[in-house]
Amino acid sequence: MSAGKITEKDIRLFMMDKPELNTLIRGVRWSPEEIDAAIAYAVSYYNESPPFIGGYTVETFPWKHTLLLGTAGHLLRSASINEASNNLAYSADNITVNDKDKADIFLRLGTQYWDEFKTNIQNMKVAQNIASCYGSSVSELYRLAR
């Protein structure tokens, strides 16, 4: 049932976090450690959300796309904190620069991904709960719940 562990590369492709696309920051936005932590936080959120049906690790979490949504949501919401706390517009010679003004955009996107993640896991847990009572296929019940 496991879709396999999502990787740093999966997250970077999902979020378009490539050095050649990040011209202002000249590199990738998130470190491998930040990505690994965000994956772990998303799995932990699943495990700590009621109803407490089964528990997964980063390696065994069975829904890859849902985990991508949770990871992206966490990364973007965290980035919004950094952007907001480091936001400073400065001006010199009639040129104004504000390279840390994306807090609102990051927060909106992060919240959108996080909300979709939460909806998906709630539907999955409902399907798992029903399957444990009636013996139906979780994937079939999840499909019907959507």
Characterize the structure shown.
The protein has 146 residues and is mainly α. The chain has one domain (8-145). It has 5 helices and 2 strands, in the order H-H-H-E-E-H-H. Helix 2 (32-48) crosses helix 3. It is elongated, with a radius of gyration of 18 Å. The model has no long low-confidence stretch (mean pLDDT 84).
How are the SSEs placed, and which strands pair?
Layout: H1 8-15, H2 32-48, H3 64-85, E1 90-92, E2 95-97, H4 103-134, H5 138-145
Antiparallel strand pairs: 1-2
Helix pairs in contact: 2-3, 3-4, 4-5
Helix fraction? Answer: 55-70%
Q: What is the overall pLDDT average? A: 84
The ordered string of helix (H) and strand (E) elements is HHHEEHH
Question: What number of domains?
Answer: 1
Principal-axis shape equals: elongated
Unreliable segments of 5+ consecutive residues: none
Helix/strand structural class = mainly alpha
Characterize the main sheet: 2 strands, antiparallel
User: Helix count?
Assistant: 5
Give the strand content. Answer: under 5%
Strand order of the largest sheet: 1-2
- SS elements, strand count: 2
Euclidean distance between termini CA atoms: 19 Å
- Compute the CA-based radius of gyration: 18 Å
Summarize the structure.
The protein has 146 residues and is mainly alpha-helical.
List keywords for this structure.
60% helix, elongated, single chain, 146 residues, two-stranded antiparallel sheet, mainly alpha
